[in-house]
Amino acid sequence: CTPDEPQNSWGGQSHNYGGFVAAISGLSGVRAARRAGRGPLGDVSLHEVVTGAIDNLFMRYVYADHEPFPRIAARLGSLHWLGLYEVVPARIGDLMVTPTPEAVSLIDWMVEGGMGVAEAFVGLSVEELLGQVPELMAAIRAFCLTGDASELFSEAQKRHIAFGEVQSVPQVATNPQFEHRSLYGDITVEADGDITVEADGNRSGGAVTVRGPWRLVRFSETPIGVPDGLSRNATDPTELIDRWAARPVPGRSEAESSEAPRFGPDDGAAPSPPLDGIRVLDLSWVLSGPFATRLLGDLGADVVKVQTEDRATLVNQPTYPYYQVWNRSKRSVTIDLKRPENREVVRRLVERSDVLVENYSAGVLARLGLDWEQVREWNPGIVYVSMSGCGHDGPWKDIISYAPTVHAVCGLTRLTNPPGRGDVGCGFSLNDHAAGFGAALSVLAALEARERTGAGQYIDMAQLEVGACLIGPALVDHFATGHVTEAAGNVDGLSDLVPNEVYRCADGRFLAVTANDDAMWARLAHSTGLDPAEGDRLATVAARRSDRVAVDGHLAAWCGGLDAEAAMVHLQDAGVAAGVVQDASDLMERDPQ
After folding, report:
1. Exposed, middle or buried: residue 508 (CB in 10 Å: 0-12, 13-18, 19+)?
2. Long-range contacts of range 100-108, CB-CB < 8 Å, 24 or more positions apart?
3. N or C, which end of the chain has less CB nearby within 10 Å?
4. Is the peptide bond before 532 cis (omega within 30 degrees of 0)?
5. Is the whole-model pTM more than 0.70?
6. Contact 464, 409 (CB under 8 A)
7. Tell me, what DSSP letter sits at residue 211?
8. What is the mean pLDDT of residues 71-93?
9. Which pLDDT does position 196 carry in this prediction?
10. Which residues contact 17 (CB under 8 A, 6 or more apart)?
11. pLDDT score at 314
12. Residue 208 — pLDDT band, cuts 50, 70, 90?
């Protein structure tokens, strides 16, 4: 969000989050049903899903006495809540910058480049640098104006500095790491014979080849091929039923099962959590990995969080609220993985685990003798999840990245901006949460495969590839037509619904309003007092797209005369999608749902 106006993340990310949670609920529910003999109901609320992935807002609100930040988080554009990540302009282009994982290399680089102001930071301890974060970030901004974003990105990574160029959709489409790891695949979609399709300037019909990111992660033992194409031919449900053999029901004969529902009636026994009995060895830290294992722990898995003193710094200290937020539902143990005398303890933990999750940089655990090859010798049934920035092979495997870096390089930052700008982006660690959701889902998929094969497997997640999947529609569009999606503020990047915007109300708060279809627009126009002739003129999506200024002008004027809460209630009562843009105080103290 910009300080002036809330900015939605491009691409319907709340729906992506909801899709992850629905799939996780489905697979964990299958495990619960298999054990209990009856299927559960999973009630997924998008409101709760998104709220559950912005825990840093509640952390500040609840732990206000322990945090050096305002209790209510302000809109800061690209500036991360820690103040250590920001998108800044370069001489050409924009760059996500940060002085982490350690500032010494960056300070030395700035001094080498003639930035005299950087000399004031030479020799300072981490604690002293933290006390001068605004001054340090100001020096970094000035330094970046001396070079082009692509050159600074390349040089920074050579120096082990986590800068990320804010890249466009064409750059993401030609990323050499994605080419090496074969992220993009071609899927054939059948079309009616009389349909003509524009593709790369040529007209064709009958079938369309769609190119884009086709997988989330790589599975070692049950690899997923490029998906089958879509067919317009309907499947005969009777034929499908015959092909789908009846599922056995626990405690019933095969004959009884064929005539009965898959799962038996509720016998009144208290259900156990879906992942009860699953053991997870958590070697991850910061956010993406801990979020994934927290999800597994919340579903009933027994999660053991391994912490070491050298990793327990800043927000990762067990006494810090951040650590508490991302590591609930877990046990905690301290093991220094670098000490040879601890190898036997680690081996015994691995032998007794179902899942191992780690998000170290590529090669770190291999140097500690804990890579997949070694771990599967100890436990052939283990599901081993690596959550590195760019994957464990390819020309970018050693790139240093955090979620804001990934946002920049995967195209999400560039798309999430007001028109003509590239310096805003998501403002929170969206991709860390998406990777956490994806890792938890992948674990459940691998556990289902193990039910059939008896074998564990290696899951190689590149968080950069997760980011590319999040902007998949823009990539598919570019591959198919050459069109380059650019930032357009809160304009809906998928369906271009009009209106789909936030409007300032009389009390200074903002109201988000969307008309999902023409019928909702008619209700919206009537309930806000729009002249009927004007409402009819704008009755279609095409008409509203062609005169977006008129639509937004009317709603801005109407919302400006009401408090946000009253405007929301009025529109919701009329059957219009509208919601107050809430902060942590609203969510914690006033949100009735």
Report:
1. exposed
2. 100/162, 100/402, 101/160, 101/162, 101/400, 102/126, 103/129, 103/136, 105/159, 105/160, 105/161, 106/140, 106/156, 106/159, 106/161
3. C
4. no
5. yes
6. yes
7. E
8. 89
9. 47
10. 46, 49, 50, 53, 433, 434, 437
11. 75
12. confident
DSSP H or E stretch at residue 307: strand 302-307
Measured between alpha carbons, how far is 162 from 95 in angstroms, rounded to an integer?
A: 11
Catalytic residue among 423, 432, 477, 492: 432
- The helix or strand, by DSSP H or E, that contains position 298, with its residue range, turns out to be helix 288-298
- SS3 label, residue 96: strand
549, amino acid identity: V
Residue 47 to residues 211, 392, 472, 504, Cα–Cα distance (Å): 32, 35, 23, 22
* d(C-alpha 554, C-alpha 146), whole Å: 44
Give the residue carrying structure tokens 């991850």.
284
Q: Note the residue count of the chain.
A: 593
pLDDT tens sequence across 58-69: 888 998 888 788
Assess whether 460 carries a catalytic annotation: no
pLDDT for 100: 85
129, 139, 153, 374 from 134: Cα distances, Å = 10, 9, 22, 45
Neighbours of 174 (CB within 10 A): 10
Give 196-199 contacts, CB < 8 A, sequence gap 24+.
198/481, 199/480, 199/481
pLDDT per position as a tens digit, 282-330: 999 889 999 999 999 999 999 999 988 877 777 788 888 888 889 999 9
Calculate the CA 34 to chain-centre distance: 30
Span 544-576, pLDDT tens digits: 999 999 999 999 999 999 999 999 999 999 999
